[in-house]
Amino acid sequence: KLGLPGLPILTFDMPLWKRAMVVKSHMLLKIVLLLGNFHNQMASLAGIGFLMKNSGLQEVVQVLFKVNTTKAILSGKDYERGVRVHGLIASALKQTLLEQIPEDVVEACADYLESLTSLIDVPD
Question: pTM score, two decimals?
Answer without folding.
Answer: 0.61
